[in-house]
Amino acid sequence: MIYEVKGTEKIKKLFGNWQETMTWSCVQGVMGHLYADAADIPQSVMAILGDFCFFAGTPNSELVSYKPEWCRQDFIIMTAYTQEWFAVIEAVYGKKAKKVSRYAMKKESDVFDKVKLKAFSESLKSDFVLRMIDKEMFDDCRRQNWSRDFVSVFADYDEYREKGLGVVALKNGELVSGASSYSSYQGGIEIEIDTKEEYRRRGLATACGAKLILGCLERGLYPSWDAQNPWSVALAEKLGYHLECVYTAYEINGY
After folding, report:
1. Is the pLDDT of residue 3 over 90?
2. Pairing relation of β-strands 44-49 and 222-224?
3. In terms of DSSP bridges, do strands 52-57 and 75-80 run parallel, antiparallel, or are they unpaired?
4. What residues are paired with 79 via a beta bridge?
5. How far is it, in rounded angstroms, from Cα 236 to Cα 225?
6. 11, 67, 124, 222: which one has the fewest Cβ atoms less than 10 Å from its Cβ?
7. Pseudo-torsion of CA 13, 19, 23, 25, nearest 10°?
8. In a domain, 141, yes or no
9. Cα separations (Å) of 4 from 28, 61, 70, 130, 198?
């Protein structure tokens, strides 16, 4: 049987020193959900937040196959801290599971060059305007598929205003790029960054990312960055981050 649980010291220990902020969000009770194989003394735990699912503790096929009733999505990204979980994921989902590489960036609070970031944030041509995500931009992000993940994990704008932070680039009032908090945890955010396809390679993501990082630093928040691909790694490094490691994840279609 699978139980929904709250973050406890035992749950925290199962995740160990895993530097994945979305597990922190769940354990801290900021956002997301935790599930375990037992309510009192769990040996296996799963954290779900948005499109991501993380496993820790003793590999458990029942937990890997468990989908909460509230979860209506048919796509999710699964990963774990140990190799043993990967075999369970492959056994449970078979061909539905696509093995991919993701890139963890180091969490270093003292590596950001504020002068350089400010220059990046002011580098756009005059026909582009940067704007913080307010209620109007929050709703605009939600309306479009490419930008929905800037705000999708937050229930509404009130929650986003309380826990999130984001920047968008506009051209003639049209949303064309942005950098925002995919999720939040105590003391920081996890960055989501993207640009509408026809506006890529114009420095928009660089400018948005730089302004968001500056906004985080001003508020005493850490802007955590987990990269989906080498392009994202290159952008992160341009903004001051360093690569920590490459890790394995599984994209589950038909979840």
Report:
1. yes
2. unpaired
3. parallel
4. 54
5. 7
6. 67
7. 110
8. yes
9. 14, 16, 12, 41, 43
Residue 128: inside a domain: yes
The per-residue pLDDT of the chain, averaged, comes to 97
* Separation between Cα atoms, residue 71 and residue 198, nearest integer Å: 32
Using pLDDT thresholds of 50, 70 and 90, give the confidence band for residue 81.
confident
Residue 54: CATH number of its domain = 3.40.630.110
Average pLDDT estimate for 213-217: 98
pLDDT over threshold 90, residue 134: yes
pLDDT band for 53, please (50, 70, 90 cuts).
Answer: very high
Q: Tokens 């035992």 correspond to what residue?
A: 10
